[in-house]
Write a structure and sequence with these properties.
alpha+beta, 5-stranded mixed sheet, 4-stranded antiparallel sheet, 12 helices, 14 strands
């Protein structure tokens, strides 16, 4: 897949996910706002109902005081085809029924009609009397009710009961705290856990008690809900899984895009690796083929000097080809989680000394020099000798490849006792160095540092990745210090053998 296609798909998917998240957030925000408004409306409705209940209780109190609270104090009139029936209830609870039958053919006599007229006038007088009594009671309520203490007019038990009843009726089954305060803000009484400082303005609901009082101070019922926020968000908890799944999909999408770019980069590096490998193999094979053709020439066979030169060429190119094949085989180690190592106790000073002596000819070929400062007193390490040798050899080979044309090459390999448990080995050169941007990537597989206009640096980008892997599996660590155009220093720390 082309890089441009991946970018287009990435942008489209990113816009889609961002739009989906924005819609969900906007929808959730609107639902929360709606829930807050519904909650506030239900609470206000409940508080108004509580205030009405308290007013009705106070009216009932004054009716009880005047003896008019018994039901049916006035006569109840029922008209039917048979006549009129009156049900009379006295304040003491006595009841009586009076039925006046209708005459199917009333006569113009004064007997029954006169009696009916007399009864009607008597009940009218009774009605007027009762209405007068009620007027007196109402005037009594108006004049005396506001003078009663608020603790009697609205005691805490009734207020709590009415609040619970009205809130439950509206489905607001949520704990609350309340208090009754006067016009000056002084709390007259409160529930046990009411804390005015804990209730913010949006969470406090206030209702005037007995708003119809003509005189007297005003009192207010204050209610707040400690778990209001939890109650609101619990009502929209069904939105949380959808939002969480969207976030998970977004994370998976981002991870997939990162993997796609890494795979594309890895594919490009592998293609470069194959091209380099083909070129690296082609040169020694061509040299060996040419030497074999020269051996078929009779004149060459008769010249010992020519035979010696051709033999040397075949030997060198065979070693070069074997070295390249070994590097390719090293690549298979990166696909295994754990390499197979033959660990043994090795004197690092002796091994490094032999490597330096072997590599000295190659360094001197380019007019350079190499020195070994093996100052470690205890240099016995538990390593695989072949891989340990390859690690040091790869570092030296890189130093030769990336030498500077402006000054003679000089290499230094040193060892020293870092502490009682660790050995430090350094490989330092005065080559072209490494840029800061490349330092973080030089140990990545297939990564190769740019050499500018130089085209004589060959390789697969596996050397330093192999070095890093081997040092790590040997229980050590490797770091690099470098300045561009000043040189590079690799520092290897290995644990000493406990034996």
């Amino acid at each position: 897949m082309k890089k441009q296609t991946i970018w287009i798909l990435t942008i489209l998917m990113a816009v889609t996910f961002i739009g989906l998240l924005c819609i969900q957030i906007f929808y959730m925000k609107n639902i929360v706002q709606l829930r807050y408004e519904q909650f506030a409306q239900g609470v206000r409705q409940s508080l108004v109902a509580v205030a009405n209940h308290l007013e009705q209780d106070e009216t009932r109190h004054f009716l009880d005081a005047d003896g008019l609270a018994a039901p049916g104090a006035l006569a109840e009139e029922v008209t039917s085809l048979e006549g009129k029936r009156y049900t009379i209830s006295t304040p003491m609870g006595l009841e009586a029924d009076l039925t006046i039958k209708r005459d199917p053919a009333p006569k113009r006599t004064g007997g029954i009609n006169a009696h009916f007229t007399s009864a009607r006038e008597a009940y009218r007088d009774r009605y007027l009397y009762q209405r007068g009594v009620l007027d007196d009671v109402i005037l009594n309520i108006i004049s005396k009710s506001s003078n009663r203490p608020i603790t009697e007019r609205a005691d805490s038990a009734r207020v709590s009961s009415y609040l619970r009843q009205e809130l439950d009726t509206l489905g607001l089954k949520v704990p609350f705290e309340f208090a009754v305060a006067n016009y000056a803000g002084t709390t007259l009484y409160r529930s046990s856990d009411f804390k005015a400082t804990a209730a913010d303005r949006d969470n406090m609901f206030i209702q005037t008690l007995f708003p119809n009082d003509i005189s007297g101070p005003r009192n207010y019922l204050k209610v707040y809900f400690p778990t209001k926020r939890d109650y609101i968000f619990s009502s929209i908890s069904f939105m949380v899984p959808a939002f969480a799944f969207t976030c998970i999909l977004l994370i998976i999408f981002v991870y997939t895009i990162i993997v796609a770019f890494r795979q594309k980069k890895l594919t490009e590096m592998k293609n470069d690796f194959i091209n380099n490998m083909t070129h690296e193999f082609k040169t020694p094979i061509s040299s060996i083929s040419l030497a074999a053709q020269m051996l078929n020439d009779q004149t060459v066979r008769k010249s010992p000097a020519m035979l010696q030169q051709i033999s040397s060429v075949i030997n060198d190119e065979t070693k070069r080809l074997r070295f390249q094949v070994e590097k390719v085989l090293q690549m298979s180690m990166f696909d295994r989680q754990k390499s197979t190592l033959k660990l043994e106790e090795v004197d690092a000073n002796a091994a490094i000394y032999n490597i330096v002596n072997t590599f000295k000819l190659k360094v001197e070929k380019y007019g350079g020099s190499i020195s070994a400062d093996l100052d470690a007193m205890d240099a016995i390490v538990n390593v695989d000798e072949m891989h340990f040798t390859n690690v040091i050899f790869n570092l030296l080979d890189n130093a030769v490849k990336y030498r500077s044309d402006e000054r003679p090459l000089h290499l230094t390999v040193a060892s020293r006792d870092l502490d009682e448990d660790n050995l430090e080995i350094t490989v330092e050169d005065n080559g072209i160095g490494i840029r800061r941007d490349d330092l973080k990537k030089i140990f990545d597989k297939f990564y190769r540092v740019s050499t500018g206009n130089r085209h004589d640096v060959k390789g697969f980008g596996l050397g330093l990745a192999y070095v890093k892997k081997m040092v790590t599996e040997l229980g050590g660590d490797i770091t690099v210090e470098s300045e561009f155009n000043s040189g590079t220093k690799f520092i290897i720390i290995l644990p000493l053998s406990k034996n």
